[in-house]
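Dear support,

I submitted the protein below through the web form. The confirmation email said the job was done, but the results page showed an empty box. After a refresh the structure appeared. I'm attaching both so you can tell me whether what I see now is the final result or a partial one.
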Amino acid sequence: GTANYKDQSKQLNYSLKYAGQGFKVLGGAEVYDASASQWGAYGSLQGKNKRKSLYANGEYQVGATGPILAAGVRHDRYDVWGSKTTGSVGINQRVGSATVYSNYATSYAAPTLSQLYNPTYGNTNLKPESGRTVELGIRQVLSNLGVNWEASLWRGKVKDAIMYDGSIVNSRTSSGYGLYANGDSLETQGLELSGALRINTQWQLKANYTYTDSQTKKKGKDFARSVQVARHKGNIGLAYTDGPLNVDLSAFLTGKRYDWTGVDWIPGYVRFDVSARYAVSKQLNLYARIENLFDHKVQEGLGYKPMGIYGIVGAEYKF
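What the results page shows now:
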């Protein structure tokens, strides 16, 4: 039979920024209202997700050359999940032309409406996930050489991680298995590298690389490599600027990763994209983008049709 799903959301956000001598502060409020419904072969089900939030972030520099201290806090009040407060603290210190920084943050994420009410894979018994992340990095700008680069290490852990588990029996799927579920935990750690070289006033070369070691622990099982997460990903691009015209040519590459079963591999690939933007005036911009320029057989998931060439053109007007 046919199963149907529909959701919609409304969001209102208001923020204020203030900068003084040696410090910056941003504060705001947000209201989020979403609803979802499913009907058809597996019956009817409706749900809502309403949230009211307050948040604030601030930076303060100790003296003219001292460290910059940063902190943030966010309070969310969910109609379904109750109230939750998360926050972050960080510090960065300039050393010559380089800046060394570190951050610690907590997080909280409620299940999406699709994860809860999708007629095939949804699970209304899902719980929110909570986590914490620590990061350490260095960035440097060498103006005389036209070079800037950055390197960072991070480690994160998520409790009650929401994941797609292909081993759970589910009569709603064609295979008889597969459902969104809470795992015991998700642990990730990795390295990020990025850099840019200014060739001349018009051309710039940019590149980045990410190594991710992600391990998932399902209920009652040992840690195993996370599905659909490649350990190696990167981009390399060439940017051209001439007055109101900006053009970017880039190559995106990803290594192999497990498909949702955790058994079969999805092969890695390289994809080339090109984009352009032209400023007609201060208010009006025209843009165009082509992804997978050479129509490489990109495979994002086993069982899905490979991506072909994708293009988009548009206009942006700022009031």
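Response: this is the final, complete result; the empty box was a page-load delay. DSSP finds one helix and 20 strands in the chain.
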